[in-house]
Predict the structure of Tetratricopeptide repeat.
Amino acid sequence: MDRQGREDRHSEGPRHRACLRLATRLALLLPGLLLPVLPPALATAPAQDNAVAALPVQASPGRTGANASFEALMRAGDQAMLRGDVSRARAIYQRAVSLDPQSSAACLSLGSTYDPNMLATIEARGGGLIDAAKAREWYERARALGHPAADRVLGRLP
């Protein structure tokens, strides 16, 4: 509701609900990356999977200036996914992977842009986005780099 007691017209609807579902999934897969962009009610809600939510984000150590750029790219990719702009998110995550090829979080995020399960939860713009084989490839790379959620998302792929 706004200050005059009217219902906020942007708070309901299928796109809003799809964004909240995606934000919840991404927050569980990549804890810590989405919290700055989540709506306050969702950011403060108890985690659905405490074991996953408590896991640290996997980033390569020893990068200072590049680290800020990497984190900005990851946030921008997360925001593009929340908007349903999968093609843009994919391009941003690819830049993040090229900046830090040892980041399991970037690999997992890039895999999510191909994942049929993830894309089914949002109103993705653009055709031909789903590619389970590429999702599997990126998720396996994330697993090899030690991302704790990689096994779970790999197990859900068709």
